[in-house]
Amino acid sequence: MPKDEVTGNKSSPKEKVARERSEQQAQLERHIGARMARIRHKVLIASGKGGVGKTTAAVNLAVGLAEAGDTVALLDADMHGPTVPRMLGLGDIRPAGGEDGINPVTYNERIVVMSIAFLLPHDSDAVIWRGPLKGKMVDNFLADIDWGERDWLVVDTPPGTGDEILSVAQRIKDLDGLIMVTTPQETAVASACKSLTFAIKTKTPILGVIENMGPFTCPKCGYKMSPFGEGGGERIAAEFGVPFLGSVPFDPEVVTESDKGRPLLLSQRNSSAAVAWRNIVGEVRGLVTGRAGPDHDPPKAENKTAMSGELQPRSK
Ligand SMILES: Nc1ncnc2c1ncn2[C@@H]1O[C@H](COP(=O)(O)OP(=O)(O)OP(=O)(O)O)[C@@H](O)[C@H]1O
Ligand SMILES: [Mg+2]
Question: Whose Cα sits closest to atom 26 in ligand 1?
Answer without folding.
Answer: 51
